Amino acid sequence: MTRLRFKKLWLVSETARAARNIEFHQNRTLLVGRNHTGKSTVVKHLFRTLGCQTRGASDRWDSLAISVLEFELDGKPYTAYRKANVYALRDDESSRVRVTTSYPEWAEIMAGLFDFRLMLPTHQETLAQATPPYLFLPYYMDQDGSWLHQWNSFDKLTQFASWKKPLAAYVTGQRPNGYYLAKFEESKAKASLTQLNQELGVVQSALSRVRKTLPRPAVQLDTAAFKQEINDLLRTSTLLKTEQESLRKKAFDCAAQRESLSSQISMARDALRDLEGDLKYLTESKTELAITCPTCGTNHESGFPVRLELIDDAVTLRKVIAELEVEHRKCEEKLADIYGKINRIKRKTLDIEKTLQTKKGMLRLQDVVDSQSSEVIRGAFAKDIDTLKRQLSDKEKIAADAKFKVGQFDLPERTKAINDFYSERMELFASELGVHDLREDVKKRPDAGISASGSALPRSLLAYQFAVLHTAKEKGDAKHFPVVIDSPNQQGQDADHLRQMLSFIVKRTPNDQQLILAVEDKPSNFSFDGGLVELTTPFSLLDPGQYDLACDELRDMVVAVEAGLEQRLASSRVGAFEDDNELV
User: Fold this and answer.
1) Edge-to-edge strand ranges of the sheet holding 515-519
2) Which is it for strands 531-535 and 28-33: parallel, antiparallel or unpaired?
3) Whole-angstrom Cα distance, residue 237 to residue 368?
């Protein structure tokens, strides 16, 4: 069981020298405020601080504002910090602070902290760790998207392909953490099997070709009888062959590096040409066009900022091309030097071949050398093939074990029991909210899509959210996270329906889960036992009078974050210095 409780949220604008702290009741908090008073900003920053991209950013809000969230996880205190792309997490008991400017690294920190192991399919047909938004979707309904579509509280959710069905299976317990850990191990094992099979095929094909050119063993002699006579010749020949093979390997590696650099230069030039074409088009175009990102599907308005970004990208590409060309020239020079050494060894080899042609009676010394060399080559190939086959056997066992573990979770009776529980909850909650026209698949499966019209849509979505929430609590991995509901008065709810929705939220939020409910006005005859936070002044969420208090209370955290950033920067400098020395 993982129990999360929000304690306090700090919002600080260094530009405006203003701040606000909101303390949350341990069980229930009612946040009341009309439009533009900042209630939605408060609840959005609960999740934004933890790494979620929330919807509906205000032009008036300071994009560099600091948000600091104090929370408890299974009774242990933590503090999360975010400023733009700087994330930090402090263990308040040990005072250990982890700081990063990398979102993937932050996602891993959150996954480890909350034991969140959901793996989602990417657009490249691989599996990857789900990011923080997918952890909190079942517990948060925002005012900008959640009342129109299910699980629509955050932006940029298209980073994964077809994520809703696996998320529903994860949340409701059909496929918990254990399933995805086993599935990931199976995926890695299958990828390793594919690579090993390819390597084995290459080695076996090479052996087949080499066998056609190797001389058949002509003799089986005791070389001790010739030891005194050919000792020097064999030693010299062996050294030359060893050196020659080493140089050939270096030449092959260097040639491969040269081809890789050539390919990178070509790709960078193509990209630069495309960028310059886009920049020319945007500059000469008289109309404002929308650009759609092929990765996340977000529309970006073209304009002066876009052109500046294209110019910056073009400058960066030119630098990259110049650096790659320098590396390509170095590679060419190194390759020429290696070929020169190989040619010198060839001349030495020709010098001793005359001696190797000396016969001992009717037997040439070359026959002895050729026979021994053939056996060595065959033995080397056989050793590589045996090693690859052993590795294949090991990986096949790992893949089979992982597949068995995956199958342990895909049990029809388990899925049916979970769907039956969800169905019972969904029908009950729909009835309590006055929704009577749900499709049959919505009633029976948590991965079905909600469709309704008018004021019934928000109530249908609320019934679905809580049916999944209750199923997750009963059948899932028991993540008891705060339930955060923002502005349920959507799509023209009349007074009776709104009171019905608010009472339902209070009644059906599990007792051991925190509730944070944000409304424009507190309805009459609405009972709410918990903390009350009222926001009354439009566009004045942050208070200059709280700025000094915020600076005092958050000083240790800010100092720790700055120290962590400096340490990361210093490490980057050391790494860059070591890389430069290796190049030299």
Assistant:
1) 140-141, 483-486, 515-519, 28-33, 531-535
2) parallel
3) 12
Of the CA atoms within 13 Å of residue 348, those in its CB half-sphere come to 15
Helix (H) or strand (E) holding 534: strand 531-535
- The answer to whether the beta carbons of residues 379 and 211 sit under 8 Å apart is no
Q: Token pair of 394, please?
A: 């090991």
Structural tokens at position 496? 């009776």
Taking each continuous run of H as one helix and of E as one strand, the counts in the chain are: 13, 18
Q: How many whole angstroms separate alpha carbon 16 and alpha carbon 127? A: 43
* 477's tokens: 């991995």
Cα 319 from Cα 138, distance rounded (Å): 45
Q: Going by C-beta distance under 8 Å and a sequence separation of 6 or more, which residues neighbour residue 285?
A: 302
Q: Which two tokens stand for residue 470?
A: 């209750």
C-alpha to C-alpha distance for 306 and 448, rounded to whole angstroms: 39
User: Would you state the structure tokens that stand for residue 380, as one six-digit string?
Assistant: 């080397």
476: Cβ contacts below 8 Å, ≥ 6 apart = 170, 171, 172, 173, 176
Residues in a beta bridge with 59: none
Instruction: Name every residue whose Cβ is closer than 8 Å to that of residue 67 and which is 6 or more positions away in sequence.
Output: 9, 10, 11, 12, 45, 48, 49, 81, 82, 83
Both tokens assigned to 281: 């088009």
CA atoms within 13 A on the CB side of 260: 8
Q: Is residue 344 within a helix (H) or strand (E), and if so which, with residue range?
A: helix 304-356
- Give pLDDT < 50 ranges for the chain: 359-362, 576-577, 579-584
User: How many CA within 13 A on the CB side of residue 141?
Assistant: 29
Residue 418: what pLDDT?
Answer: 93
User: Which residues are registered as beta bridge partners of 271?
Assistant: none
Is 173:471 a contact under the CB 8 Å cutoff?
yes
On whether the CB atoms of residues 77 and 25 are closer than 8 A, the answer is no
Question: How far apart (Å, rounded) are the C-alpha atoms in residues 517 and 509?
Answer: 11
